[in-house]
Write a structure and sequence with these properties.
Length: about 280
């Protein structure tokens, strides 16, 4: 009876005994236990994640990447549509497991979340009216330039244009509309979106062109929660397996490749971000 009392006292004190409540499983175990990977994706940004006109189901490059990663993890993909500015907060709050939404690496983001290996690099470019086609970035010094709120496009403005005044909007369409309406002198977005917009308005009074000098070159990766090494390792293994099998290039070509309206050629490979040469934005 006395021994039982001593053991009980030790358990209460936490001395020399295993904890009464087991530690919370790591994120990878949670995901596998649920049988689903919740991916934060864009709600309506072509060609990354947007609703199909007929089925209303989300489709796009990021949807395919999320689905492929989930398959490699042995679970199903669950898509959670997010606004541009909600990507990091929703990941930090744990409402999504990962973010696959054309997410560029920045210093600030790297202090808040973890990043997978980069699976391609993109350019942030300046879109201007056709009358300004011959101008260089320096010619827009001190002028108003629009971009989507919470994007690296917005962050690139003061970095690439001296005294550039960033005017941000809730989404990319609104930021471009500001250029059309003459409220700003330029509009910054990623190269793919810029190419599509330029083609759509070509031959009209509102025709635009892409400035020859890029604003930034950015590595794109999967956003992950901090301090989850198992999850990060699993995602990186999935991305590298996709690279080796050619699956990553197939996904890229389907949405951005030479036969699409963006006509891009993938020259990047899945690579750890610390092995890339680029100037990260804050």
């Amino acid at each position: 009876m006395q021994v039982s009392k001593v053991v009980f006292a030790m358990l209460l004190a936490g001395v020399g005994a295993a904890p009464l409540v087991s530690a919370h499983a790591d994120q990878l175990s949670d995901v596998k236990g649920r049988g689903a990977l919740t991916c934060g994706v864009y709600s309506n940004v072509e060609p990354f994640s947007y609703p199909n006109a007929q089925t209303r189901q989300l489709e796009g490059m990021d949807v395919d990447i999320c689905t492929a990663i989930a398959k490699h993890l042995g679970v199903k993909a669950k898509l959670e549509p997010l606004a541009v500015e909600a990507r990091i907060p929703q990941l930090k709050l744990g409402r999504v497991d990962v973010v696959v939404a054309n997410l560029a690496y920045t210093k600030t983001r790297a202090g808040q979340i973890a990043f997978s290996d980069a699976y391609y690099s993109t350019k942030e470019v300046l879109v201007v009216k056709k009358a300004d086609a011959g101008k260089k970035l320096a010619d827009f010094s001190g002028q108003k330039i629009s971009a989507a709120d919470g994007s690296t496009s917005a962050q690139s403005i003061p970095l690439s244009i001296k005294n550039g005044q960033a005017v941000t909007f809730h989404d990319t369409s609104s930021a471009f509309l500001a250029l059309e309406q003459g409220k700003v002198n330029g509009f910054v977005t990623n190269q793919m979106t810029a190419t599509k917009i330029a083609k759509q308005v070509d031959g009209t009074a509102g025709a635009v062109v892409i400035a020859t000098q890029p604003m930034l070159i950015e590595p794109i990766a999967v956003g992950l929660r901090q301090n989850e090494p198992g999850m990060k390792d699993a995602v990186n293994k999935a991305l590298n397996a996709m690279e080796q099998s050619g699956e990553m290039s197939q996904i890229f070509d389907r949405w951005l490749g030479p036969k699409t309206q963006y006509a891009l050629t993938r020259t990047d490979k899945v690579t750890p971000i610390d092995q890339l040469k680029f100037t990260p934005v804050n």
